[in-house]
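Sequence design from tokenized structure. All designs in this work follow the same two-part layout: the structure record, then the generated sequence. An example of the structure record is given first.
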């Protein structure tokens, strides 16, 4: 308790308060701007923190990290352009609400869900960080494979209107995940002799193309703008009744996000997609997802912010990064002469508690700062689209190129933009493609690692209770919508035999 009080006294120092608030603003700006992710902002800031005290430096970086994960949803909701990959699932229902003239409601749900999810993830970080780190160690290749398959199995629910098109879209995503050098065998696959495809297709150009570029094409081709309907943008936090309605989704997304976040190398994007899938799976009205459903925003937003906190667990407790941003932060630990791991908790208790409290404050600031930030940022939407569209296009192109300094990513972004426009025109859902490309690589690699471990014995997937349960739930979830569809058709035919 004494070390917590000391940590609290550290945080309320003027320099530390400036670091937390300044980090929140920088994080929101970087997360909301397409092509400038929170990871990139943390990379840029690390050298500048060299002259700061370790407490101040990490409060700044953590505040940037937490705020950027949330603010990717702002541009996703307003422009259908995810500012960060963690917000791609939010696009599916958030932008639909904007088209319906309810951006203030969508932004409010995003702010509220992100803050609550982040606070719940922060509480888990404080209470059970060492125990959660042990849980992460219980996950091996079979369990990772089971988790990826469970996320993919929801494709039949997402494609309730046309399962064939949904399955084809998911297969396209799975195919894209196989492009590049085989990570296990070192053999090029589907690269067509192009060196720039050897490292595979990054999912960020794909999602920018499918969502942002295709939306620009739709605006140009169909000459429809949403700014006339929207007027002045503000943030309306959910009413008490809506908070009560969303609470199960937010708690579920936060729990799932925290667990997925502590798994090394998975990250908040996967957590958001899996949480969205599970929200669809357990909903009484799954057909409403993708049409502007509030739960479609609450699930991914609570999950990705909880996952951001969860990713700190293996970093602090074991010295293993849980995400790309925490991998960058590992460099900051080295820069400041700190060594993450079990000894850090006993030797630097005050520093650890400062980080814990800083995480909670950074997430609470989302509730306080985000409405004012959004009010200023949303003025962008009042710019005439003939001016705004080219600016977004340039940001998308620069952002795609900046990921790997690869011109191929720019061509892929533009190509997937045209493909996304055509797919939507012919009523193909885009979310199964994202599911396939985000989870496909994970599923394939862990499947093959499992078989190498068992020397080809498929029984390894049923020897682990966790993997067996995940795969069993996945099978039932995949089959159930198909069986229900067949039953409904059979019942309809039986009721009208002459039809």
């Amino acid at each position: 308790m004494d070390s917590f009080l000391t940590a609290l006294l550290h945080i309320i120092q003027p320099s530390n308060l400036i670091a937390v608030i300044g980090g929140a603003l920088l994080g929101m700006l970087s997360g909301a701007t397409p092509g400038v992710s929170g990871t990139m902002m943390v990379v840029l800031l690390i050298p500048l923190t060299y002259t700061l005290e370790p407490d101040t430096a990490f409060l700044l970086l953590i505040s940037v990290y937490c705020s950027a994960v949330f603010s990717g949803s702002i541009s996703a909701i307003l422009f259908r352009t995810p500012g960060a990959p963690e917000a791609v699932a939010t696009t599916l229902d958030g932008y639909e609400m904007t088209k319906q003239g309810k951006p203030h409601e969508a932004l409010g749900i995003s702010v509220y869900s992100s803050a609550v999810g982040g606070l719940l993830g922060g509480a888990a970080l404080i209470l059970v960080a060492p125990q959660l780190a042990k849980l992460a160690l219980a996950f091996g290749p079979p369990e990772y494979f089971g988790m990826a398959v469970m996320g993919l199995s929801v494709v039949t629910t997402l494609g309730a209107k046309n399962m064939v098109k949904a399955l084809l879209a998911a297969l396209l995503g799975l195919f894209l995940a196989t492009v590049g050098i085989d990570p296990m065998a070192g053999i090029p696959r589907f690269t067509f002799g192009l060196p720039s495809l050897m490292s595979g297709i990054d999912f960020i150009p794909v999602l920018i193309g499918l969502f942002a570029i295709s939306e620009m094409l739709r605006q140009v081709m169909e000459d429809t703008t949403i700014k006339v309907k929207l007027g002045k943008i503000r943030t309306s936090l959910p009413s008490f009744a809506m908070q009560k309605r969303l609470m199960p989704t937010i708690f579920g997304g936060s729990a799932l996000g925290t667990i997925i976040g502590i798994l090394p190398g998975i990250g908040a994007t996967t957590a958001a997609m899996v949480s969205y899938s599970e929200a669809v799976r357990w909903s009484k009205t799954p057909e409403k997802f993708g049409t502007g459903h509030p739960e479609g925003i609450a699930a991914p937003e609570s999950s990705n912010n909880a996952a951001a906190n969860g990713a700190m667990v293996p970093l602090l407790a074991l010295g293993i990064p849980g995400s790309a941003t925490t991998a960058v932060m590992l460099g900051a630990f080295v820069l400041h002469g700190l060594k993450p791991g079990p000894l850090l908790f006993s030797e630097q208790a005050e520093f650890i508690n400062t980080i814990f409290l800083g995480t909670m404050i950074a997430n609470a600031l989302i509730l306080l700062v985000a409405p004012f930030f959004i009010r200023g940022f949303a003025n962008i939407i009042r710019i005439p689209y003939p001016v705004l569209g080219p600016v977004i296009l340039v940001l998308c192109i620069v952002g795609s190129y900046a990921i790997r300094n690869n011109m191929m990513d720019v061509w892929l972004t533009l190509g997937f933009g045209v493909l996304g426009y055509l797919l939507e025109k012919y009523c193909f859902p885009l979310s199964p493609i994202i599911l396939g490309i985000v989870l496909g690589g994970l599923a394939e690699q862990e499947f093959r690692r499992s078989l190498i471990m068992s020397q080809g014995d498929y029984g390894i997937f049923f020897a682990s209770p966790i993997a067996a349960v995940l795969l069993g739930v996945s099978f039932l979830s995949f089959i159930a919508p198909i069986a229900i569809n067949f039953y409904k058709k059979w019942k309809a035919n039986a009721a009208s035999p002459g039809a």
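The first strand starts at residue 180 and ends at 181. We note this feature because it recurs in several other targets discussed in the main text.
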